[in-house]
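explain this:

___
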Amino acid sequence: MGLDLIDIGSNLTHDSFAADRDSVMARAAEAGVHRQVVTGADLAGSRQAAALAALHPGRLWSTAGVHPHHAASFAVAQRAALYELLTMDRVVAVGECGLDYYRNFSTPAAQRAAFSAQLEIAAELRKPVFLHQRDAHADFTAILREFHGKLRGGVAHCFTAGDFELDEYLTLGLHIGITGWVCDERRGQALRATVPRIPADRLLLETDAPYLLPRDLNPKPKSRRNEPRFLPHIARVVGDLRGESLADVAETSTRNAVALFALTDS
C-alpha cells in the first residue's frame, strides 16, 4: 500500500493554480497526498475554498475565516456570512485566523477583535480552529486562554518556533502544523530542534502551497511554486528528525488530521 497523506494547509484557490488546478491535484494524489484541506483567508476566499471542496467530495475540505491581514474589514455582516459558511459539512475549521504583528496590515486592536469573534464562532459551532501567529505570541496565547476548554481543538498553522512556544501551544490543546520551513537549515534551526518533541498525537503536516517551497528540494520546479505533491518530502524530513520512518509519520499525521477535522469520505 502506498502513502496516504493529508495536506492540512493548501491554498488551492490561489491564482497560481488557476490554469492547472486539476493537474496539481492529480500530481498530489500520485505522490500519496490523496486529501487536502483548502485554506480560506477572507470571506471571498473562504467561499471559493468551500465551492472547490464541494466539487471534490472525499478529496477536499476547506476552512473559513478572516486572516489577521484582513481583520480591519471584519464586521457584523461578515460575521453572519462566515457563520453561515461554517455550518456547511465540508467546511471543517474556523480560520485562517489569529494575530500578525509583523505586517500589521490591520491594527492590533482590529486583529484582536476579529480573532476573538472567530473563536466565539468556533466555540459555538464546535469546530476546530486553524491558527496564524507571527510576532504576537503573548497576545495570541492570552486570547486563546480565554477560550480554553470551549474550543474543539485547533492547529498552530505553519509552526516555525521553538520549545517555549511549543509547550504553550500544547498546554492550550493545539496540534502543531509543520511545513517546508523544517527543510530550511538556515531559518529552521529552532524548529528542527523542536520537531522531535512534538507528541505523536499532535503532529500535522502541510505545504502551505503555493508558498514555502522546501529549500532543500532537488530538483526545484522552475516556477518556484510549491505544490501539495511535495508533502512526502516534508514528511521524510520530519521523520529523519524524529527517528521515524516516512510510513510512520504519514500514518500518524493522517490519523491526527482525520480526527481533528472530523474528515469523512462523503
In short: The chain has nine helices and eight strands.
